[in-house]
Amino acid sequence: MGDRDTARRRWERLGAEGREYGMAILTLEAGIEGAALDGAAGRNRLQRLGAEARERGLLLLAGRAERLAVAASGR
Known about the structure:
The chain is an all-alpha fold. It has 4 helices and no strands. Helix 1 runs antiparallel to helix 2 and helix 2 runs parallel beside helix 4. It starts with a helix and ends with a helix.
């Protein structure tokens, strides 16, 4: 479990840096990957981030978030 927590913290740090420098794509990607590490608990966050990516026209990120959300739900 420690490896997963470490990875999540690294994604969170990367997302914070993305926000600090105004890098929306990096911030969304880091949020998506970090939420994916939360498994079923991160599913709602993945859906929200996927919708945000789709609104911004970032269809690859939106698709990644949707695939990870489905995987997190166990389907």
